[in-house]
């Protein structure tokens, strides 16, 4: 009754579980390397479906207008719909699957707790402890996801020069990264950029750091800062 009363949430729960399943079989290719590639694409397609359903839930009345598009781009679900479309047909990159896997795992765990609560307060204690441990480490997991999002930017550039990526991919991914940086619901991307800047500045200001390395890092920090979008 609980599942039928929340059909859209249940559909997203199932698609997230399927995403976790496919992502795991890509990261751990138990069925062979050839099959791992297909699981990579299935995971991203399932994530795209979940993101589309979540976006429909957040903005149920679709309008073909600039204002609606601007509003949609503020939603994290729209960001990860774009993310899935960027990588679904690209060369499989293990780093790109971790945000999809971990977000799906966190959201699936949250809804699984609701399903367990709807059944009984004491059933499956082992699973409940596992979900509680996952929830306790949520902040660290979100920081890890943000770190993946940031370092995928140079990875897309490297893929382009190695012949494994397209010319448009770095530019589209840069747009995705600016959306994540400006996210209203998830500030971890901004936080990680700030923390990385502090760490790098601390290291390069040490007397043992070569002058040319210091200048290169300061120039890089200045360049990246200029590319960062303005956050309201």
From TrEMBL:
Subcellular compartments: Membrane
Pfam families reported in the protein's UniProt record: TMEM33_Pom33 (PF03661)
One Gene Ontology term from the biological process aspect of the record: membrane organization
Chief place of localization: membrane
Transmembrane region(s): 12-33, 80-106, 150-174
Residue ranges of coiled coil: none
Keyword tags: Membrane, Transmembrane, Transmembrane helix
InterPro entries given in the database record: PER33/POM33_regulator, TMEM33/Pom33
Topological type in the membrane: Multi-pass membrane protein
Entry GO CC: endoplasmic reticulum; membrane
Family: Belongs to the PER33/POM33 family.
Protein name: TMM33 protein
The organism of origin for this protein: Rhinopomastus cyanomelas (Common scimitarbill)
Gene this chain is encoded by: Tmem33
């Amino acid at each position: 009754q609980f599942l039928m009363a929340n059909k859209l949430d249940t559909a997203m729960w199932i698609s997230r579980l399927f995403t976790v399943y496919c992502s795991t079989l890509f990261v751990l290719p138990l069925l062979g390397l050839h099959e791992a590639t297909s699981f990579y694409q299935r995971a991203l397609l399932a994530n795209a479906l979940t993101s589309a359903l979540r976006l429909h839930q957040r903005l149920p009345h679709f309008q073909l207008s600039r204002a609606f598009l601007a509003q949609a781009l503020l939603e994290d679900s729209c960001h990860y719909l774009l993310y899935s479309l960027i990588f679904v047909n690209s060369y499989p990159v293990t780093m790109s699957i971790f945000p999809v896997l971990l977000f799906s795992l966190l959201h699936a765990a949250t809804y699984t707790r609701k399903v367990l609560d709807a059944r009984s307060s004491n059933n499956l204690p082992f699973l409940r402890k596992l979900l509680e441990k996952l929830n306790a480490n949520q902040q660290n997991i979100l920081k890890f996801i943000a770190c993946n999002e940031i370092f995928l930017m140079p990875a897309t550039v490297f893929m382009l020069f190695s012949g494994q990526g397209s010319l448009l991919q770095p530019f589209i991914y840069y747009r995705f990264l600016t959306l994540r940086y400006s996210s209203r619901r998830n500030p971890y991307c901004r936080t990680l950029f700030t923390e990385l800047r502090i760490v790098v500045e601390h290291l390069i200001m040490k007397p043992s750091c070569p002058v040319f390395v210091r200048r290169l890092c300061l120039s890089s920090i200045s360049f990246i800062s200029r590319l960062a979008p303005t956050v309201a």
